[in-house]
Specification:
- Helix content is 48%, strand content 10%.
- By secondary structure, the protein is mostly helical.
- The chain has two domains: 67 residues, Fe,Mn superoxide dismutase (SOD) domain (Helix Hairpins, Orthogonal Bundle), CATH 1.10.287.990; 101 residues, Iron/manganese superoxide dismutase, C-terminal domain (minor pseudopilin epsh fold, 3-Layer(bab) Sandwich).
- A three-stranded antiparallel β-sheet has the order 2-1-3.
- Helix 1 runs antiparallel to helix 3.
- The longest helix is centred in the first third of the chain and has 23 residues.
- The chain is globular.
- The relative contact order is 0.15.
- The mean pLDDT is 96.
Amino acid sequence: MFELPKLPYAYDALEPFIDAKTMELHHSKHHQTYVTKLNEALLQAPEWEVKTLEEIVKHYAEAPESIRGALRNHGGGHLNHSLFWESLKPQAAAAEPQAAIKQALEANFGAYSTFREIYTKAALGVFGSGWVWLVKDSASKLSIITTPNQDNPHTQGLTPLLGLDVWEHAYYLKYQNRRAEYIEAWWNVVDWVAVENKLA
């Protein structure tokens, strides 16, 4: 059975960019609910319990119809949030991508500033709830995509490198309806070393 991953930092470690109360609720309530409901669904299909989280998300359409929606939504929610926590780092305010990830962004987008502008625009353009992603395809070409709800790029054969949660639960306590401010603040806590590790 899946478990809620422990964060490698305290709930208040990302202040002032992401507030402690939002982090606590986002992790211990929202993410925990995805894990709980995923495990409940898997009890109905023991043959799916042996699969990795990535396999479940990639192949949920092959699951019994009775649990397909749960695997898509709650499996996706668990995976997306796990990736999200891994991409954050306290006091990363001065950090920008370096080495291989910087070169890859420049090769695919022309400049880091151009990538950041396109990514931000995509995040602002997500209607309702969803995610924006930097992804890698099988040829290692990078692109930016958005997914609705808790869908994950793995279902499109893409590897997620950096995801931003733009569900309101990710920012509403601090930023209310000001998604643009949340996105701008989030750039200050991106862990580019973690992103580069996924690229490799």
